[in-house]
Each structure stands twice: as structure tokens, then as C-alpha cells.
Amino acid sequence: MGTQTDEPLYARVMRRPRTCSALETLLAMGFPRSRALKALVSTAEKGVEEACEWLFSHLSDPSLDAPLPREFVLYLCPSGPLEENLMDFWRSCPSNPALAIPPHITLCQFFPCPDEAVSPLLSSLGTLAERLQPSFPQALSLRLVTAAAFLGLFVRDDQADVLRSLAGEFTTTATGIADVQVEPHRKQLHLTLAYQLQSTERAQAERLARCLDPSLPAAWHLRLYSRDLRYAGQETQRVLYSYYPQNDDELELIPGDFIFISPGNSTEDISKSCEWIRMKFCGQPISCSEGWLAGVSHLSGLSGFFPENYTERAHEAATWLLHRSYPMCEEIEGREMVKRKGDMAVAPPIPPHSFNGQTGDLQLHLTVIRHGERVDVTFGRHWLARNLDSNGTYIPKDLNLPPFLPVRPAGHRAQQLDPPLTRVGQLQAQLTGEAMRDKRVPVDAVFCSPALRCVQTAHYIIKGLGLVGLTPCVEPGLFEWMHWLRGVGSGGTSSASGPGEAGGSGGAEGSSGVLLSHPWMGAADLAAAGLPVDESYRPLISPPSLSPCESYEDFIKRIDCTARELMALCRAQGFHSVLFIGHAASLEACTRPLRRLPPRPQREFVINVRKVPYLGLCSIRELSSGSSRSWALVSPPIPPLSHGPNPTFSWSQVLCDP
Questions:
Q1: Whose CA is closest to 375, among 411, 399, 392?
Q2: Is 592 helix (H, G, I), strand (E, B) or coil?
Q3: Hey, which of 191, 226, 272, 280 has its CA 20 to 30 A from 124?
Q4: What pairs with residue 191 in β-bridges?
């Protein structure tokens, strides 16, 4: 007989396995140690799955095995009402380079840290934050300081000494861990509001800065960021649209990726960019064409040429990684809490006529939004015929088609001329409204184009906002450029149309090029379809006054006059925050004249219009009052809405072919 013990037999046999770290798991999967470390650091140590995705996407990266450490920096960042106040200021100064990085006080300079030293660095920072938290000031005192091309909030001297002590301890520790000299920030500690201001911008920025309230409560966090030192400060493009390479020297574009290019954007600079890519990666001559840039993908590390109009300008800081964030003071008490319904956060109702607490000269705020996904662009100009049975009854044959069509006196012809949204388009609009609600964006009035897709978009945005009782005002003056409707009814497609604005819509005119009729639904028909509109509103422009022979200049003038009259009407009514729901062309046509800029050349305008996706939006804010009013574009209050294509699936063609 064996010796009896108090420990059960299964416990002695089945020992609980030790939990493996992410690094150990990657090594057990067969990845080299250097690559595993690089993947973990490049994904902010989020986990094994993210590191594997990074490794698989960088398998062809020529710099994958290069011993290139990332650069790190330590910031002290506010959250809460102060941060919101600062973000409102930055949205009013869109050309300000400071808005590329979240509000912060710099505690040390950028320093390189080898991949194997990142984990000990994070541990030491956490220990330091926990030890110094009790002595950290509960409220930092900030004062506004202005200079020729700089605006900032400076920390009171005695509190700055506490922050310098914290920064000194961190840099001493980091110097020992990273084996490099880490320098603390030696200038006066401050939070930068704006810099590199032009003389024409300084007065406006300073006026806005004096409206800030630095005494607002804030919870301060120590945040450690990192960046790829190879591309620090380099010109960066954000990918908007997918592009699959047609040649070996081209770069695949994936929406959301960032492309680092060599500095400059002139023909000479682009040629230098080509030479940079050739020398660094290709080893052979490369030619460069107008409209193409050469760069390196942040997502894959691959290099090549790509079409510039598939991207937009971005700041290199958008590619930075946040590794850790440690609270240095108690979270703010007494703030209005977000109510929860199930697992979804629901913001409190938006107070009427509120304007994010802004004071001073700020007046009207206008947001212009393109409508959602339209049926005819998604399913083709014959979408209706394909979904009618032999009796002419509409029976949708795709889940993305609307389950029913509104009753229209003109019958099916009107459905072709004035197509509705898809169900995805309805969801796009409602998601936009919900995002605005969650960000507590105030909305006092909504004006929309008479096109059914715009009325529907306005309806679902208002539904997402949760504003019971608010109905849109239908204004024909906001309709798209009438020129884009010419020739479509006879089967043609305007080459000048924006993405989905006229091409394939079924048309609105006959072969003679004369507009047959305005097929828009009246208020009674819209109400019967569950789309109530403000019947007391009297449009500025009547539908018969819209000519199919409208020139580009007349279109810009019509939209500008309509926008100005509507804003004057809102000002008289005491409204502050207004939505326009229109078309792809509406974003520029409504805002560019308000900024006192001449119209772009027609060809350039058309190219810009084609870059506006469904539910693309922009915001513009009035900056002065009285007889002299100026307007400036500001950052939209909500992020963009992106999703991939999903073509029609035919199971019989895919699965039944021999």
C-alpha cells in the first residue's frame, strides 16, 4: 500500500498549467524572438492575436528583421470637461498643427527603446505612477500665454516643480532600462494650444483661446506613446478607398491604412520620392506619373506607387501607439453620468439651443451631410424592373432592398426618377444620428434636399438623435446640380456626376434634355410613408425655377444663396446648430462660399465630389458677429463611417457550375 496523503490523487497528477506570456506563446508558435518582440511592441502589447496579425501582414516587409527600435514619449493628458473644452477650441482652428496630437503636457523628449526593454519600461512606469499618485496635485492651475505664433496654457510654478520631479524620476529609470540618455522636458511645462500660426489666423485663434476655461475639472493621466522613428514627422496620407495593384511596382491600398511618403508634394518632390523608394527598396529605375505618389504602407511595410486621389492628407501622429495610461488623480465626481440601457450607453437628452458651452462671438454652427446609400447605384438603373412581378407588384429580392416603396401618384416612373435609400443607407443615417447623440451634438433645425433619399436620411438621423418632435424642412434650393440630370433619362450617364449622384439613377428627363417633371413627394405623401416634414416651412426656391440647363456657376450661386438665407432664418429664430442633408456636391458648395473662397475650377470640383462617400459630412462654424461675419471649417463632432463592399451572391453560379 502506498503512503496516504491529504492531497487528492487527481490534484497530484493534473497540476494546473502555468499561464504563458504572450511572448512565450509566440515563441512556441515558431516565431523568432526578435520578430515576436517587434510584433508585440508594434501592437502596444494588446495580445497574441493582434501580434500574429501584425506578423502575417509584415511577412514581406523588407525591414522586418532590421534592429530598429520605436521612439517613446511621456505625456500628461487631461480628460473630462477640460479636454472637451480644448477639443472644441481645436475644432475651431482646423489649420492648427497642434490638433494632430491629443491635449498634453510633455514630460520628456522622444527616446528610442529596444524591443526587449519595453516591457520593463512599462512596469517601471506603472510602479512610479502608483507611488507618486498620492502627492499629485488634484487640480492643475493653468494660465494662458500668447506669443507671436504660439498659444499655450502654462502650469503654475510650484505645481510644475512636482511634474518635473516626476519626469526626472522617469527619465532616470528609462535611461537605465533603454540604455540611452532620456532627456526630461527642460522648457516651462505647458499645454500647447496652437503654433505656427499665420498672421491672419492669430487674432481669431487668440480670441477663441480667451473663451477657454482652464479651471474646468480634469482627471490627469500619464500616457506613454510610441512612433516608428523612420517616419517621424514625414508627410503621411490616410487611405480612403481600396486599390488593387495593376503593376508590380504599385502599392495595394486598404481603407484605414496610412502611407508614409517623402516630404513635399510638387512634381520635383514626387520625383525625389521615386528616387527615395528606388534607392531604398527597388534597386532599379522607376518612372513617376502625375497624380501618383510613392510611399511605404504602415499596415504592411511594403513600398510602391499609389493614386493620390485615393487618399487624404493626415498627420504622422495618427499612427502613434498608446501603450499605457495611468490615472494620477481621482476621476471627476459630479459629472453627468451616461445612463445605460442593457449593454448600450445612452446619452442624456440634448438640451435645446445648447452649444457645447461655448461663449463669446461664436454664433452659428452648420453641419452638411451627404445622403445614405441609394438603391439605384447599388442595384443598377433597372433595380425596380427586376423586383416587380408579372402584376407589377414590388417584391424585393435582396435583403438590402427596402421592404416596401412609398405610394406615389406618378407610379413606378417616380420611383425610378427619385430612388429611395437601401436598408443599409437607412442604417448608415441612423448610426450617424446615434453617434451625434452620444457626442451630445446639439441640433436645432434640419433642412434637406427634396430628393427622397435626402428626406429619408434626415428622418433616420433625427431618429438616431432621439429628438422627438423635430421634423426636417424640405428646401428645393439644396437639390444637386441640375446639369447632372441631363441625358440620364435617355439611358446616358453624366461623366461629370459625383459618386452615385446622377449616374444610373434612371434619369429625370427625356431624350430631348428637357426635364419632364419634378418627381419629388409632397408633404402629405411623405407623411403617409412615415416621413413627416415641417409643413409650415415655406421653401426659398420653388421646384419649377430649377432649370436642367443650370451652369456650374449658377449652381454654386444657387446653393450659396440658399445656405445664406437659411442661416439668416435660423439666426432670426434663435437657432445655433443646423443640419443640411444634401448630396455629395453639397459639402463644398455650401461651405466654400461662406469661407469667402472662389469656386474651384469645374474639373477640380467634380474630382473632389467623387471623394465624398455616403454620409460624408463636414462642419463649419461662424466666428464673428455683427455686420462682418467669417466662417471656418472645423473638425466634425463624430468620426467617419466606413464599410467594405458586399456584392450580390449567386449560390447557383458559385456552387453548381461543374
A1: 399
A2: coil
A3: 191
A4: 105, 153
C-alpha cell at 615: 454620409
Integer Cα distance of 629 and 362 in angstroms: 10
Q: How do residues 424-446 score in pLDDT, each as one tens digit?
A: 999 999 999 999 998 888 899 99
Phi-psi region of 75 (alpha: psi -120 to 50; beta: other; left: phi over 0): beta
Task: Quickly count: other Cβ atoms within 10 Å of residue 610's Cβ.
Answer: 17
Catalytic residue among 104, 298, 365, 371: 371
Annotation marks residue 371 as catalytic: yes
Neighbours of 506 (CB within 10 A): 23
**CA dist., res. 30 & res. 36, Å (int):** 9
Q: What is the pLDDT of residue 558?
A: 94
What pLDDT score does 7 carry? Answer: 52
Among the options 70, 583, 592, 621, which is catalytic? 583
- 518 an active-site residue? no
Beta-bridge partners for 89: none
DSSP 377-400: HHH-TTTTGGGB-TTS-B---STT
Neighbours of 620 (CB within 10 A): 23
Average pLDDT on 286-291 reads 56
Strands 617-622 and 339-341: unpaired
CA 300 to chain CA mean position, Å:
22
- Count other C-beta atoms under 10 Å from residue 569's C-beta: 16
Choice among 323, 365, 370, 408 that is catalytic: 370
Exposed, middle or buried, 638 (CB in 10 Å: 0-12/13-18/19+)?
buried
DSSP 8-state secondary structure symbol assigned to residue 250: B
Handedness of CA 535, 538, 540, 544 (dihedral sign): positive
Please give the backbone phi and psi of residue 449, each rounded to the nearest 5 degrees, phi first.
-65, 155
Cβ count near 325 (within 10 Å) = 14
AA letter at 266: S
Question: 143 in helix, strand or coil?
Answer: strand
* Helix 423-438, helix 452-465: angle, nearest 10: 40
Helix %, strand %, coil % of the chain (to 5): 35, 20, 45
Give the least confident one: 109-113, 484-488, 500-504, 528-532. Answer: 500-504
Taking the C-alpha atoms of residue 172 and residue 184, their distance in angstroms, rounded to an integer, is: 9
Residue with cell 508585440: 40
**Are 636 and 367 a contacting pair, CB within 8 Å?**
yes
Pair 326, 221: CB distance under 8 Å: yes
> Which amino acid, 336?
E
Distance CA 260, CA 611 (A): 21
Cell of 115: 524591443
Annotation says 583 is catalytic: yes
Range with lowest mean pLDDT among 29-38, 96-105, 377-386, 475-484 = 96-105
Whether the pTM exceeds 0.90: the reply is no
